[in-house]
Amino acid sequence: MVSTAAALEMFHAFALIHDDIMDDSATRRGSPTVHRALADRLGAALDPDQAGQLGVSTAILVGDLALTWSDELLYAPLTPHRLAAVLPLVTAMRAETVHGQYLDITSARRPGTDTSLALRIARYKTAAYTMERPLHIGAALAGARPELLAGLSAYALPAGEAFQLADDLLGVFGDPRRTGKPDLDDLRGGKHTVLVALAREHATPEQRHTLDTLLGTPGLDRQGASRLRCVLVATGARAEAERLITERRDQALTALNALTLPPPLAEALARLTLGSTAHPA
After folding, report:
1. Where are the domains of the chain?
2. What is the pLDDT of residues 5-31, one digit of tens each?
3. Are 169 and 238 in contact (CB under 8 A)?
4. What kind of architecture, by CATH, is found in domain 80-276?
5. Nearest of 61, 50, 70 to residue 17 by alpha carbon
């Protein structure tokens, strides 16, 4: 149902708008983030701090509005029977997304060697709400049995984790001109990613000092970022992250092949998995 797909897109927009505020990101998909664009548009006559605060405040409202519209798009067209089928899934998706975002922001600037925490962030912040729950919602609307939902989870969770691992690599090693994604934000924010956890786990004392000194520095410059990238490569963290991407992608495709889905749908999901888990050369 088109309205349900639109509702999920509006929820995605809500999550990204608020995520960019929390991360103080300047760009999203190669364009200014909502709070930065609104600061420029509405705060021209104000000093930079006032303009920035106005941009944040109004962007929070825009995100809230996107969430409200998501509700309207999802609930209005559904029969009571279909609404009863999807409402628990939508509720779970929202709680999981908030939980993942909480883990993400509370672990920033104090990353350790705990890869399990980093993977948990990837699962709740990304895999659940971008892959697993949308598939569950679509299947529930079609009257799918619980066994199919379980099979979709077996595909969606490793696929979503692989996507987040690839996105973490793009956030550090990608070319912003090609990806539309900044290559300094994650390093400046000290994100607790699998990539960083692996580097800290295998770092020498000198490499750990570099990580401790530079990672999570808001004013990190290009030279400092280059030093951090060298550590991420020298510790084997980048290579191991790439291996994990391949492992989870293959796991997802194996689970997908085990499902009984219409061929066009299975082919579309396979293309999505392969395309979204590519990592920088």
Report:
1. 1-77, 80-276
2. 999 999 999 999 999 999 888 888 888
3. yes
4. Orthogonal Bundle (1.10)
5. 61
